[in-house]
TrEMBL record:
Lineage: Bacteria, Bacillati, Bacillota, Bacilli, Bacillales
Its job: Catalyzes the insertion of molybdate into adenylated molybdopterin with the concomitant release of AMP.
Pfam families: MoCF_biosynth, MoeA_C, MoeA_N
The name this protein goes by in its record: Molybdopterin molybdenumtransferase
Domain of life of the organism encoding this protein: Bacteria
Family: Belongs to the MoeA family.
Occurrences of domain MoaB/Mog (ranges): 185-323
Enzyme class, spelled out: transferase
Record-linked SMART domains: MoCF_biosynth
């Protein structure tokens, strides 16, 4: 008797997976190695930035009060008494109508409170004149204007990107606390599979899911461990899943999750004693996506169909792995875009259509990327987004505004909103 599975909503499936995520242990790593992780500690300003009043321009430091009354008809001259570049501190104290030649980034000298840009002066020997008054602190980059000592700048759980690295460097956080990257095992099942290096024989196809999933992980900065591809034999697959589970924080399998005679994953979960969270989702492709847990580890049973496999990874594996690494914004970014062409199919299940998303400067547009079936491989290669059409809807026409999930961006959002 074939098992009749009860589909659950995509949102519920996502929530269930996220509820079962266990964060990986916190480690301290060299800050330069931290790109792609998420902060396991907040970044708090250790000192003011800038930590001293400084010049934002190449010019002259003056006392603003000396510039009162300057105009085209009444140029005020200044005597230059010192010359400093960034990294140097002048030891001179300005007296009336004296100035210090100062370069961008150098600390404002004692007594000075305004900077005149080089272009605003007429120079003559060791002096220059100006034709306008300067207000107190005009053209001065103030101590603490960027960050105040003790200020919380970046919250724990934020993704670390090159800008974050700049901030870590600014405060000398040369070691940073992050959640370790999870180890992920990948197993592809299917007697029909041969390696991409091999010639095809009757009934055989090349394994594309394995390399694809491995690279979906690479895109997240994770190096997965591929256990290769295997024929649909229960004992063999069971042993392999056990081994991969013992050696990794989570395991991704592809294929063998449906109700076919050689779909052994359901039996494998049973034999392992794993708890199946769900095995049918009201979505297409990827309706057969199954997620199970065992000893706090997640087992992702992705569909064998390439589009379904790809979609299952992006919707469930990606956010789970991001959350394992402590990322507070693990979900794909959600936008709205106008359809460029009609999509005239009823949608009993929510549909995730591999799509091309583009922005013309004013409006966002999306169009299906090509052959749109769960077993399609070509449209995955062409798309950069999913068009999401809710279950229970019918036709969508050119110009309709639809939901879009953007793929391949490193920073996500904090909530699943579809
Ligand atoms: N009676 C039913 N049949 C099917 C149902 C159903 O509900 N009732 N669901 C269909 C849906 S939806 C999908 S999706 C597929 C899922 O199948 P499996 O996850 O069990 O995957 P397989 O049977 O192993 O393979 C399906 C398909 O994908 C190809 N494949 C498998 N692995 C790879 C790989 N590594 N690289 C490239 N392509 C791969 C495989 O050759 C098959 O063509 O089940 C439907 N059936
Ligand atoms: O899981 Mo199947 O891809 O829904 O089409
Ligand atoms: Mg099958």
């Amino acid at each position: 008797m074939v098992e009749i599975r009860k589909p659950i909503k995509v949102k519920d499936a996502v929530n269930q997976v996220m509820e079962h995520v266990k964060r990986t242990p916190i480690i301290e790593i060299d800050y330069l190695q931290s790109y792609g992780y998420s902060l396991a500690e907040p970044i708090v300003a250790k000192h003011d930035v800038p930590s001293f009043h400084r010049s934002p321009y190449d010019g002259f430091a003056i006392r603003s009060q000396d510039s009162i009354g300057a105009s085209g008809d009444n140029r005020i001259p200044f005597q230059v008494i010192d010359h400093i570049g960034a990294g140097h501190v002048s030891t001179k104290q300005l007296q009336p109508y004296e100035a210090i030649r100062i370069m961008t980034g150098a600390p404002i000298p004692e007594g000075a409170d305004a900077i005149v840009m080089l272009e605003q002066t007429v120079e003559q020997g060791n002096s220059f004149s100006i034709r306008k008054p300067f207000a107190p602190y005009e053209n001065v980059s103030l101590k603490g204007e960027d960050a105040k000592e003790g200020e919380l700048l970046i919250q724990e759980g934020s993704f670390i990107h090159p800008g974050t690295i700049a901030l870590l460097a600014t405060f000398g956080y040369t070691k940073v606390k992050v959640h370790q990257k999870p180890s992920v095992g990948i197993i592809c099942t299917g007697t029909e599979l041969v390696s991409p290096h091999e010639e095809l024989a009757p009934g055989k196809i090349r394994n594309s899911n394995g390399p694809m999933v491995e690279t979906q992980l690479t895109r997240m900065g994770i190096t997965g461990t591929s256990y290769g591809f295997f024929t649909d034999e229960l004992d063999n697959c069971l042993a392999l899943v056990k081994k991969a589970l013992a050696e990794n924080d989570c395991v991704i399998t592809t294929g063998g999750v449906s109700v076919g005679d050689f779909d052994y994953l359901p039996e494998i979960y049973q034999r392992l004693g794993a708890k199946v969270l769900f095995n049918k989702i009201a979505m297409r492709p990827g309706s057969v996506t199954t997620v199970a847990t065992l000893d706090g580890k997640l087992l992702f049973g992705l569909s064998g169909n390439p589009s379904a496999c790809y979609t299952g990874f992006e919707l469930f594996v990606r956010p789970a792995i991001q959350r394992m690494m402590g990322n507070k914004r693990p979900f794909l970014p959600h936008f709205k875009a106008r359809l460029i062409e009609d999509i005239l199919k009823p949608n009993p299940f929510t549909r995730f259509i591999r799509s091309v998303f583009h922005f013309d400067g004013m409006n966002a547009y999306a169009t299906p990327a090509g052959f749109n079936k769960s077993n399609a491989v070509t449209s995955i290669a062409k798309g950069n987004a999913f068009i999401v059409l809710p279950g229970g809807t019918r036709n969508f026409q050119q110009g309709d505004v639809v939901d879009i999930l953007l793929l391949g961006v490193e920073e996500g959002v904090d909530e699943w909103t579809i």
